[in-house]
Amino acid sequence: MSGAAEANLELGIQVNLDATRKILDTLRIANPGVRVIFTSTTAVYGSPPSSGFPVTEADAPCPGSSYGAQKLIIETLLNDYSRRGLLDGRIVRLPTVLIRPGRPTGAASSFASGIFREPLNGQKSILPVSKDLSVWICSPRTVVRNLLWARDIPKEAYGIGSRVVNLPGVTVSIHEMMEALRAVGGQKALDLVEEKRDTPTEKIVESWPAKYDTSRAKQLGFKEDGTLEQTLKDYIRDYGTIKVLAHPPK
Question: Which of 7, 43, 78, 126 has its CA 20 to 30 A from that of 159?
Fold first, then answer.
C-alpha cells in the first residue's frame, strides 16, 4: 500500500516489486502466454501537469512516491513480457477505490473510504488532508466490472505497444465528499469526521493527478462510474447495517 511503502522502503520493494516479479516469472515459465491482469495505480504519474490538462496514457510517469515507482517498474516488466509473447498482460491503473469495506489499510488513500465507512457505522474518523484537495475515485462495483472486462478483451484490441489503460473514474474534492456524507448520513455522521492534517499523507495525495482523459478505456469498452452519492447508497446496500443514517437509500 502507498503509505506503508513510503514509510518502509524495504517492505514496499519486497511486496510490490520482488513478490510480483516472482509471480510473473513463475507464470511465464509454467504457463507461457497466460492472461495476466495487473492492477496498477495512477500514483505512477507523480505531480499533476502544470498545463491543467487531463492526464492520458501518453503522459510520461514520474512517481512522487515509492509505491508509484514500484508499480511502474512492474508495468514496464509486464509490457515487455507481453511484447515477447511470454505473457498476455492487461495493465489497468485504478482510481482510488471508494468505499472499501473492512478495516483501514496502509494506503495513503485509506482515509477516503474511512471518512465514509466509519461515520456511517457510528465511529470517528480522521481526515488527514485539506478539503481543497481533489481525488480521482471509482466505486467498487465499477472497478470489479472493469476488471472482469479487462480479462475478456481480445489482446489484438490493444494494438502494438503499451498494454496500459487508465480506468474511468470521477474527480471529486474532499469538500464534495463531505457534502455527500452529509446528504446520506446527516450532520451526525459528518460530525464524526475530525480534521487532523498529516503532512506525509497529504504530500503523497497531492502528488496524484485528479483529472484523466479515459478515451482509450472507453474505446476498449470499459464502463464509466456513477455519482458519488449513488456509490454511498450502493455501499450501504452491499455491506450491512448502518448505525448513522438520515434517510434509507432509495
Answer: 43
